[in-house]
Every structure is written in structure tokens, then in C-alpha cells.
Amino acid sequence: MKRSILVQIGSSDELAFEEFREEVQLAEKLGLDSVWCFPTAGASGDFRESAPLIWLSALASQTEKIRLGWGLADMLAPASPPIRIAEQAAALDIASKGRLDLSCLPETELVDAPDEPWDEGIRMLVDMWDQPAFSWTSNRFTVMPVDILPKPLQRPHPPLSLAGWNVAHAMSAGRAGMAFLDLSGGDNETLLLHREAYIEARSNTDPETLVSTGTVGIAVEFGLLGQDRERLEEWEELGFDEVIVRTRPAEGGHQEAEERIRYLAAGNSQVH
């Protein structure tokens, strides 16, 4: 089971880049797999963007192995063709030497209408990265042939997941052929319910629509207690592919963030 960290950008926590860099470099040194950079959700459920891409771009040159996860808002459903996102993500993938992961964040109910599907932006991204000349015609958009550059280093494209917190989100991820990142923070029964819904939906998906590996990650909170280590072992035994622990914001700031990283890494077979 992969072990990763998550940082929420846009809260009242003042995140100095130097501290952030040290935390991510510590996570890399201790063998953790990824750092996810997500915007913070506002009271109305919208996401305060707060430029995660800029933070991750700076980290690309400060790290070597740890994967960089970008939490994308404003993609479901797309308000405009995601050409800038395709360019920016590809550039970050190149800068990080192929270490980019993408997770899309739903801000509204995911309505799977035949004429305006919620995952249209995802399909457009995949085509932009795959085709030498991209064009698109739908009820929402008409895009004349254009070459989207650069192309990502990872082929056919960086891993794509849907973040969510209920059964409907899990099923939407499965039907869209994406990985699923569970942000519900639920108990084991809830997490397993979501995973089972995802697996069932994915099993009925047309192979032509699959765009990413079928993995399920869970984002969790824990408080550096012995029982949390037992929970990590439980999640691994239950077959989750990745556990992601939020390290920022934290009341104890930089020191607490590093403590959470060390605690998460303890017992990890990749630690060196």
C-alpha cells in the first residue's frame, strides 16, 4: 500500500515555501510515495484554488522521486475547453521527469447526461495529450484542429483520478475509467462500501473508456497515536492501494507536519 501526504492550500495556515519544501523532502527521504496539493474547500463547497500548480512547479526541481499530485478544481463539468490545463499539466510532468498525478475535484453533482457528460473535460484532456492535432465538437464546445503543446512525458498521459466522498462519486469514477480517491474520512465500513461500488462500476465499463489504472486511495486524518498505526495495517489488509494523510494545515505548524510524516513512514518497507 502506498503512503502519501496531502497539503491543503488556501486555509488560514501560512505555508512558507521553505518549510513546505523541507517537509516534502523529508517525506521523499523516508520513502513516502506522493505529495498531494489540494485547494481548501470553502463553506459553500467550492474550492479556493490558491495555485497548487505553482507550489508543485517549485517542488519539481527540489525533489527527485516523490510523485506530485495536483488537485484540480473547475473541471467537472468543464466551463471551457481545458487547453490551458493540458498545457500546464504536461509542462509540470516534463519538469518533474514524469512524476505528475492528477485528481479532479467535484464541486457540483456529477450529472451523467448523454448530451453534456460530466467527464467531458477529462476526455478532452486525454485527446489533447494523445492526438497530434486536437479537435472537438459537442453541445458545449467546438474546437477547430489545434496542436496542444507540450505533450506530457508519461505516456499515454499522467494517472487520472476522481476525488469524491460518496457512493455516487465512486461509481462515477468507475464508469469513467478513472482511479478513485476517497475523501470521505469515513469508517472502514464506509470506505469499503465506496470501494465495492467503484469496483462494480468499473467492471461494467467499456474497455475503450478506461483512462487510468483501477486504484482506490483513501485520504485520512490521524493524530499520531498507536491506534493509528493499527489503522494503517487494517487499511493495507483490506486492500486499499494508497493511504494519504493530511499534514497541512496543522495546529503545530511545521513541527507537527514533520511528526506526521515520520509517523506515517514508520514501518514502511521503503524507508532507508
Record keyword descriptors for this entry.
single chain; 272 residues; alpha/beta; 8-stranded parallel barrel; 8 helices; 36% helix
Topology (SSEs and partners):
Blueprint lengths: L1 E8 L7 H13 L4 E8 L5 E2 L3 H9 L6 E6 L10 H13 L4 E5 L15 H11 L3 E4 L4 E5 L13 E5 L2 H10 L2 E4 L5 H16 L12 E5 L5 H12 L4 E7 L4 H13 L7
Parallel strand pairs: 1-2, 1-11, 2-4, 4-5, 5-8, 8-9, 9-10, 10-11
Antiparallel strand pairs: 2-3, 6-7
Helix pairs in contact: 1-8, 2-3, 5-6
Task: Write up what this structure looks like.
The structure is a single chain. The chain has eight helices and eleven strands. The chain has helices spanning 17-29, 52-60, 83-95, 120-130, 167-176, 188-203, 226-237, 253-265, and strands at 2-9, 34-41, 47-48, 67-72, 100-104, 134-137, 142-146, 160-164, 179-182, 216-220, 242-248. It has an eight-stranded parallel beta barrel, surrounded by seven helices. It has a two-stranded antiparallel ribbon with strand order 6-7. It is globular. The two termini are 17 Å apart.
